[in-house]
Amino acid sequence: MTLLNNFFRKTAILAMASLLFIGCEKPNDELGFNQVIDGVPGVADLVFDSLISYTHNQDSILVALARESQSALGGYAGNRLLGSMTDGSFGRAEASVVAQVALEENNIDFGTQPRIDSVFLYMEYNGFYGDTFKPMNYEVYQLSGGVFPNGVLLDAEGVTVDSAYYSDYIPNYATKLGELLNHKPKPNSAMVLNGDVVKAGLKIPLDTSFFRTNIIEAPSSAFENDAAFIEYFKGLYIRTVNTDGSIVYLDLNTANSGIHVYFSDRADTTNEAKRVGFNFLQSNSPLPINISIFEQDYLGAPTAFNLSMQDTVIGEDVNYAQAMGGVYTVFEIPGLDSIANKGYLINQAILEVYKAAGTGSGLTPNSRLEIRSFEGGEMQGTIKDFDAGNTLTGGGNLVSEPLRAGKYTFDITRYVFEIANGEKLTKLAITPYLKSSLANRVILAGGSNSQTPMSLKIYLTKP
Could you give the count of Cα atoms lying within 13 Å of 265 in the half-sphere of its Cβ? Predict the structure, then answer.
């Protein structure tokens, strides 16, 4: 910890007195914010550059709220991730999709002598992560039970209670509906769908015999409304098997994404081909639930990433942060509580964290990271600087620098202000923003890094 400027200069005492007097009368949640006066007499900048940091794993992350709560936020929207990939830094990551499907139209009429021509599942791409030149194997299954949260919750009457969904959700599935083998995803190549040129998507053929028996010959009551069909069909489980290449981002909330069934009615003399669809659209009622679930295997990761050997006392030279749950960086700031209860006016507190040098190959880093509290051995909620609706954004965006690997800059003024006013000093966690809808990962220079250690710089004024 080094103090770079003197706290006082005699020429500044009178000039600062009125500011400090007004500051003492302000509410605690506003005191000193946006009053950065770097280099002005009476203002000091305090640097902490001996931070302790290490990597910690996260067993599961929240991927969706309960149906009612998620509905208030616009439904089950955003990217759904599907695929698998392995690299030498993070081991193997796998993303699967669990999704309910609803009716494109109610009371479907298949005619008197229907015959299925083809069926496929189409899911529109919204990006990718990894190597799309490597072939992938995809499988689609029908869920054998309804989509319920882990360890199905029951109320006093034994009725299932809807609750949140986490990335370690384990679906119940049985019947295999289709597969697509040795496929190289092409997220940037347009496709033809129903005679129209549309945005690229993943198209998986499905078993026509299954849909003849379970859809064409289904009781008419199954097609009365979305609720009836969701109860009848249950949903889909989509995964990759024995592959290592890429994780694609899927936008299920589009008119094209869904199951497309093509059939003809032999009793129709026009012999006209027809189509019915089942989709994931969030305009249906009830909302079709769709989530991504994740699995991580770090056995292929380097020694520096060995989770069982992380030095939590001295810290590590490099740290890791991965979306899809995975891992995050824990850090602490020794000595920060030395500023507590001394009346300091905290103008601004900036944490700088660099990407580790020489680690850019093969990894696309997260464009933004966020900071959460770390207590009881687990990552908790965001600190106040990152709370939703906060006028201070907290930052955390990746900024490239000439001749350097780039860095993340965090504004944690509110957190430091609380410490200065007697709050308990806690550990913090650096984790990707949008953990359930992106596959990015990054290697960070740790607190003990010899070249670009993470550091905290505080601009403050002494009363």
Answer: 11
